[in-house]
Amino acid sequence: MAQQRAESHGIPYLNLSTIPMRPEIVTILDEQIAKDARMAVIQKKGPILTVAIENPNNPKTIDVLKKLKKDSERVDVFLVSRSSLEVAWTSYSTKKIDKTEITGAVELSEAVVQDFRERISSVSDIGKVLNEVSKKNASGAFEALIGTSMAMGGTDIHIEPLKEGATVRVKIDGILYESARLDPHIYNLILSRVKLLSKLKLNVKNEPQEGRFSAIFADRQIEIRTSILPAEYNEDIALRLLDPKFLLSLKDLGLRKDLEEILVLTLKKPQGLILVTGATGAGKTTTLYACIKFLKTSEVKIITIEDPIEYHLEGITQTQVREKEGYIFETGLKAILRQDPDIVLISELRSPDAAEASIQAALAGRQVLSTLHTIDAAGTIPRLLDMGIDAAAVSSALSASIAQRLIRKLCQNCKTKRKLKDNEYEIMSNALEGLPENMDAVKIKKDSYVWEPPENGCTECYNTGYKGRTGIFEIMEITRGIEEKILTNPSEDELRDFAHKEGMTNLKQDGILKILEGITSIEEIERVLGTLNLNTSK
């Protein structure tokens, strides 16, 4: 009946039984006034209120709405049933709290997360904890999901709708693990809570929406990026957990000693363009932030233009792309250069105009750092030339191109050791041919050992056999020889072969060296780079 009434009045309908009520929001309106007017305040975003009403023709409802509209920039109205209002009104009977604005944050104490950590020994335990929590307090299921994922070191949470309910998958060390099944009621509670926290439209279900909110954990604030996507049965939820603990220094990235020395020398140059390449999720942004942390001093001005700002860094100026307002990478970079920065970070070169502006900024004496989507370091040159950038400008402006991938590290508590097989020795030794003689690296022998994960893992790694991630890298330093080679408009293969002759090591070689050091396994390198092959130098 309420739905029919909503349609006849042209007001969107809402079922409040699927939405967790926040007492500090509901109690913005006095209890007696709300009940007399048959209405409730259900959301507040700055000067914008969202209210639920039972009957738009009720004179008391009309009077209260007029007063709210005077005090607010906008009042969004939904029509609800009587039982829905009673759900909202239960907030008045809860413990009295201060009337504050919605914070867009979930608060989790260190003790709570530690409790979750102690109750989880494998990924499947997330589902058990969620079921236990939801039986006692359905609205607490969302906090439990965030807390258990954080306890396991998760970076992403995917809630994927089914015909009935939803599946939860948590990404740990770059791998998605199915961890729970949600019944329809809990799924709807979580969906509504995510939308409220992220300040998204509750009644929009057929359009993608993006937002963000925070999780306050002990002494740090974790930004959570939200993406809602219409799917076959309901809305798909993807949450990216941006924990500042993942902000690393150069030494923590996983660079070999010789590669770290090359990068440090390149970063110390007063000008030039440094590009970090790799697929989405390869850790490019983490490397850029590590470079900025290394360069940051009180003597230099650093400005970034990002889409979006993933981590907040003190002591630098960070700006975010706002396409609707015309603040895009190209125009943003021009505005940034008027501020006379020493160092500029551009989160991605997405267009020829952005690439051209970055090249010109580097030629004008700035140090510019950015990312580009190419397979390896050598691929950056043809990509820039394909964008229409002059070869001479690329040759003069580019300082280094860095390619990287993220690999899982073996759990040091339970990894197992075995001798190399004959065919593995052949493949690896051939791949490592041509390494610089003076490079400080493990030497491969026929009786060398490799390590691999056990079948079931241990409690330290939640039975996965892996714990944590690191990077594998190749750095193409733009030497005088490579500068001259760029001017000949070389193919990617020609440039790659020339760079190897100049002493560059590739991703595969770095991966094999990490296998021999016991950092990772053969299976993990093959998962990331593909099957090791004797006949390729890539």
Q: Number of helical segments?
A: 20
- The overall average pLDDT, rounded, is 88
Query: Can you tell me the residue ranges where pLDDT is under 50 for at least 5 consecutive residues?
Result: 95-103, 534-538
Number of strands: 19
Q: What is the CATH class of the largest domain?
A: Alpha Beta
Q: Based on the coordinates given, report the CATH architecture of the largest domain.
A: 3-Layer(aba) Sandwich
**Number of structurally distinct domains:** 3
Describe this structure in words.
The structure is a single chain. The chain has helices at 2-9, 23-26, 31-36, 59-71, 82-89, 110-119, 125-136, 141-151, 184-197, 257-267, 284-295, 329-337, 352-363, 380-386, 391-397, 422-431, 480-486, 492-501, 507-516, 522-529, and strands at 39-45, 48-53, 74-79, 105-108, 156-161, 166-172, 175-182, 209-217, 220-230, 235-242, 272-277, 302-306, 317-320, 343-346, 367-372, 398-410, 416-419, 449-452, 466-477. The chain is of the alpha/beta class. The protein folds into 3 domains: 2-93, 2-Layer Sandwich (GMP Synthetase, Chain A, domain 3), CATH 3.30.300; 105-244, Beta-Lactamase (2-Layer Sandwich), CATH 3.30.450; 250-529, P-loop containing nucleotide triphosphate hydrolases (Rossmann fold). The longest helix has 14 residues, at 184-197.
